[in-house]
Amino acid sequence: MTLRVITAADPAFTDAKWAFSTRRVEQSEADRLDPDVRAAVSGDLILGRVASVGQHRRIQLTTGRPSALYEGDLVVLACGARYAPDQFEGVAEVDPDGADMLAGGGCLGRMTAKNERVKAPTRIAPLGRILRADGAVMNLADYALPAATRAPTIPAIAVFGASMNSGKTTAAGALVHGLRRAGRKVAALKGTGTGAFGDFNTYVDAGAHFVADFTDAGMVSTYLQPLERVTAGIRDLLSAAEAAGAEIAVLEVADGVFQKETAALMRDGGFRERLSGVIFACGDPLAAAGGVGALTAAGLAPMALTGIVSCSPMSTAEAEAATGVEVLRKSDLEDPAEANRLAARVIADASTAPYDASVGVEAA
Amino acid sequence: MQAAATPRTPTDLAALEAAGARKAPPAARSGGASLDLIEVDTAAGPLPVWIRVPAEPAPGARPLIALHGISRDAKGLMGRLAAALDADPALAARPVAAPFFGAGAWPVFQRVSRRRRPDLALLGVMDALAAMGVVDPGARFDLFGYSGGAQLAHRFAMVFPNRIGRLHLGAAGWYCLPEEDKAYPYGLGAPERGSPTWPRRKAVSLSDFLRLPIRVYVGEMDVDANDPALRRNDPLDAAQGRTRRDRAAAYVEAVRRAAFARNVAPDVDLTLLPGCGHDFNECADRGGLARLVLS
Asked: What are the DSSP calls for B195-231, one per residue?
């Protein structure tokens, strides 16, 4: 095998735009390239050159700001899969003749499906997998948070949704903000999804004392990852939050409850045991009914509904009548008195019992 | 203490500003502590707050927030507390804050469920003191209220027990009892009219609230059932009694019953202040109330 030798001081590395998904990587460890990109596996760091700008006209940088992309730009992305009904589905494969930028946060792979309302993906000409001096391929997993040594006990309120863009992140951010204003030390975690700074920054802006996502657990994306790896990552995030002093966590779960992996997560007993409460974000009363049904069947009956459905008093009334679950607006979640009520429902029992939808349920 | 007299009721921020309130650092000194009137920006609007910061806070001493009654004499309240701290070196030196709820901005400050949210104002005071470095972020506070201030204090503590170290209630006119068989606002049951939002917010944290050390004080002579400032109606009288003294005793018993029902060991007691009526200054001077709160 012939390796193209690029040193750490090579402008190719130092001038490249490193994507947000690589934020935990020690860039100075980049030593040289291995052109055999076909061998790339999920999480491997790929140096590439922008061949054509498509759907993603910007890349999210490690600094947390977007950077406009130009043809010829050097970029460092992580090989990964993606599942985004509003944009792309793709797998963690890198074709030496060209690969697809599946997400602006830095996910590179092969597109397999596309929403017809988005453009073709930005194309990247891969130059090689990035190697450390010892010859090992740099992978996000190498820079992940330490694995949890014992099961975390921090109470966690999970935010599920009917789909992408149903209001999960808005709800999670609002609840984080309300909890902080109530004096709680709160962690904001994204348990699944594709690496991006939008949600991450939302949590930071909301005032969370600790923010982390699956990238901090070593994954650019949780799509097509083994369930055990995803649940281990969530456990590691909760453990890190607890170690950082957080007393409660808000955990967002990406995609909708019918998405294959979210559904698998819901059925996983170990994951369910870590949850102390569930909030479901959805867009309309019918979605509310479906989501509550799916979650309840999985033993995760939500304690509140929120999301776009809460924007309309009429939809709110219909959703509450159809499900028997109260609907909370963004302003309710941000209210420290309301956020503290939700916290009180989960904190007292979290250390002694697994998720129990009946805990703290108040009669209508 | 500031030389300019602070107007009593009715007062508002403009009047306080005219009297010399400002945001600048220390206007006066009280003993070894700085004493100042600041304005805190809260989610419920700007709020003047008297703050007293000791030069060297005692290790582990919790900060105290003191809430005035309908006389709205925050300055006088702070004065009595400061005097007690100055007079007795055995009392732990700690930051003290006395917010001022002016009549113009706060026609009703005793209840958290009103449109103008005094609970958000108190959270803002807590955050401001942390931002100033006076207390640690997220610190628990001791909370004292007299008369209307005691009404606000116990209601705030029911919603945010996680922010309270010790609760001191002086001669509240009436209470929200920790009982779900009594309709809100006199208990935590469903209200006869209006939203159940606030009783729900209080009920869910009830066990945590009942674990708090709660000290209730009332003047031995605070027995005037015809005080025009005292809310009276049949359900209230039947549940809590006709006078503030009766109501204080009823509240303590209700807290004990609720605690036992939830397998919580109650830490609540009632102190009758000898020879005192419904007057904070009298309770402080003759009854030793300030010292009791600060002990």
From this structure: -SHHHHHHHTTHHHHHTS-EEEEEETT---TT-TTS-
